[in-house]
Write a structure and sequence with these properties.
The complex is a heterodimer of chains A (about 350) and B (about 325). With about 350 residues, chain A is mainly α. Helix content of chain A is about 80%, strand content about 0%. Chain B has 13 helices and 2 strands; from the N terminus they run H-H-H-H-H-E-H-H-H-H-H-E-H-H-H. The chains are: A mainly alpha (about 350), B mainly alpha (about 325).
Chain lengths: ~350, ~325
């Protein structure tokens, strides 16, 4: 019994490296393709626009990463509707009461994100319900409320937001917010609390026996997700400069695809922000490259088709790489035994 | 690992408790509906509730089987939509409607085979595998449908001629009393329950979901079972998609969207474990009926579609919390 567990321990370490191969390889391919199809991306203008356009997805995928880490089967399907709900709250609610400054907007957006995520986290951890069911219920509630509040896309975001996300120069507020979020993640991921999340996701029995308190740890993971969801929603609001109740499902789909592309395992305990960021950039680049072709009315179906195929292929390639490293590891272990 | 006899006893006990609470919940909801909503007890409303329950119940057959082996099929809404618009386009392409239905079901089975094979390889990732396959399939079918068509596809809707027999299958004014699709559902339910309880394959499905290693040691063909359950799931989803075509009289790519949540909810409310090995289809039937009655009540309170959606999400949690809870890790040490 001791041998397989020793192997799986080292495989875990190895896998962490191999998972980045898929998103990184895809990134290189997509960058070459974009260079051929749409070289505008590599101008100062193009890059500035790309940063503004991709940052909501990148930050949302980071939000999903912490929930995936906390596992098991930790996939937050409510991320898209949560973002549209915050989006609508900013555009309809905050402008009505006159709170439109950057500080107020960020505070409210992050606050809403945290409150809703705490609610879902408490249900998952307290009642021990499956994450999929709770977040799907959250999805329905948030999407339903968004549509009740605002049946059609509309409204106007505060002025400063659209200029933030206009993407005129590379060093725009959009970039600062993106970098700030990643720095925040880097700081958080060095805490003991974060290690407990990882431990709980890997094996909650071991974590429990080692004295990790499961309820606060899971709820805490959701708080972190709520912070990033709030930031992502502000960036998204800036990007579209209005409110849109219909964008939820496709956003969930893109973010989950990016998460899996980045090598996160839904079994829990294994996910990296670097992978998620690469995955999100990949997803954005796929739609960028596809947009350079003239698919006319089929454009959105093409994006659907490609995203789905890429998701499945990424899983398969990731699985193959992992099994290669397992067999290599076994061979090495056998050789070591013979010596 | 798991105390065998104790575990078996516990699972029967929770299952009986689940069936009891579920049946009680259903009766309470029916009584509430009958007392608060005018016309709830009318023949036409009962018929339409059974009809809607048959759409959900058929699609939930697949979801139940997938949950029993420990996977989830999130491709169901996409397959429903793809079958819905695909069938209409094929029928209007001059193919006899019977042939069209059979070929759509066959194609759906292929989708399910891919779902099952990839999900088997990527243990624990069935959720994203099926999400990916589902989106890809719906995207592809929408491209094919809009390429071929004279009418084209606008906002996911296509117009066309739906054959009379298909409309008759889901007609509320059928001479049989209820729509024939309800009988179809009843027949498929009996088959599913017999498959699970009385056949070697059914025991294999439970064994695989309960303990993979034990199932492997007793020579269960793991890959075969995964492919089979996901294949069945895609076919039952396609059946629902085709029935919905008869009901609405036109194709709509997003017609399956509500079924993402409701099939899962029907399975969970029925008390089938989402991690596999425990549950039954008979319980899912109760779950499907509960959800349908609930939706009818919400519609009776004249909530908008969006309001119903939000409310449904909110009431599912306490219902699931009644008996579909996981165990604390301290019980598993």
């Amino acid at each position: 019994m001791s041998r397989p567990s020793a192997i799986s321990g080292s495989v875990g370490r190895l896998r962490k490296q191999t998972t980045l191969v898929t998103p990184f390889g895809l990134l290189v391919v997509l960058l070459v393709l974009s260079g051929v199809r749409g070289p505008h991306l590599f101008t100062s203008d193009g890059l500035a626009g790309a940063i503004a356009a991709a940052s909501p997805l990148i930050i949302a995928t980071v939000a999903l990463t912490v929930i995936a880490l906390a596992g098991p089967a930790g996939v937050d399907l409510s991320i898209g509707p949560l973002m549209t709900f915050i989006n609508i709250s900013i555009v309809l609610g905050l402008t009505k009461v006159g709170l439109t400054g950057p500080v107020e907007v960020f505070a409210c957006a992050i606050g809403i994100g945290i409150v809703i995520q705490i609610g879902m986290g408490a249900l998952i951890a307290g009642l021990r319900l499956s994450t999929v069911i709770v977040t799907l219920a959250g999805y329905l509630i948030l999407a339903g409320m968004s549509t009740v509040l605002l049946p059609q896309p509309g409204g106007i975001a505060p002025d400063w937001m659209s200029s933030w996300a206009a993407g005129v120069t590379i060093f725009s507020p959009a970039l600062y917010v993106l970098v700030g979020s990643l720095v925040l993640w880097a700081l958080l991921s060095r805490t003991t609390f974060f290690r407990n999340i990882r431990l709980m996701g890997g094996n909650n029995r071991t974590a429990f026996v080692s004295g990790v308190r499961l309820f606060p740890t899971l709820v805490g993971a959701h708080v972190i997700a709520g912070i990033f969801a709030g930031i992502a929603a502000v960036m998204y609001t800036g990007l579209i400069s209005s409110a849109d109740p219909t964008a939820g499902i496709s956003f969930t789909l893109s973010a989950v695809t990016a998460l899996v592309l980045g090598g996160a395992s839904l079994a829990g305990g294994r996910a990296s922000a670097v992978g998620s960021v690469l995955g999100a950039i990949d997803i954005w680049l796929i739609s960028y490259v596809l947009a350079t072709y003239n698919f006319g009315l089929n454009a959105s179906y093409m994006v659907q088709l490609t995203t789905g195929v890429v998701l499945v292929l990424a899983l398969l390639v990731g699985g193959l790489l992992a099994s290669f490293s397992v067999s290599r590891r076994r061979r090495l272990a056998r050789l070591g035994g013979e010596q | 690992m798991r105390g065998l006899d104790l575990g078996a006893m516990r699972s029967t006990a929770t299952q009986n408790a689940g069936a009891f609470i579920g049946a009680l919940l259903l009766i309470v909801l029916v009584v509430v509906g009958a007392f608060t909503i005018d016309g709830f007890w009318s023949v036409i409303n009962l018929r339409s509730m059974l009809l809607f329950a048959s759409f959900l119940g058929i699609a939930a057959i697949g979801q139940t089987l997938c949950a029993l082996v420990g996977g989830l099929d999130l491709s169901i809404p996409f397959v429903i939509g793809a079958a819905n618009i695909g069938a209409l386009r094929v029928m209007n392409g001059g193919v006899p409607s019977g042939v069209a239905v059979v070929s759509i079901l066959f194609l759906a089975a292929l989708v399910g085979v891919v779902n099952g094979a990839v999900s088997y390889r990527q243990q624990g990732q069935a959720l994203v595998v099926t999400l990916g396959v589902g989106t890809a399939v719906l995207g592809l079918v929408q491209i094919l449908v809009s390429r071929q068509g004279t009418a084209g596809i606008a906002g996911g809707t296509i117009q066309g001629e739906v054959p009379g027999w298909l409309q008759g299958l889901v007609s509320l004014r059928s001479s049989l009393g209820v729509a024939p699709s309800v009988f179809l559902w009843a027949g498929l339910s009996v088959l599913t329950i017999l498959l699970l309880r009385r056949t070697w394959l059914g025991r294999g499905i439970f064994a695989l979901g309960g303990n993979r290693i034990a199932a492997k040691r007793s020579m269960m063909p793991e890959l075969g079972i995964w492919v089979l359950v996901f294949g069945v799931s895609a076919v039952t989803a396609a059946v629902t998609g085709i029935l919905l075509l008869g009901f609405s009289g036109g194709g709509y790519a997003d017609v399956g969207q509500p079924y993402l949540f409701t099939t899962l909810a029907a399975v969970v409310i029925g008390g089938t474990s989402l991690v596999g090995g425990r549950g039954s289809y008979a319980l899912t039937i109760i779950g499907a009926l509960i959800l349908t009655v609930l939706q009818s009540i919400l519609a009776g309170f004249s909530l908008s579609a969006a309001g119903q959606e939000a409310f449904l999400g909110a009431v599912i949690i306490p219902m699931v919390a009644l008996y579909a809870r996981g165990q604390h890790p301290r019980m598993l040490i």
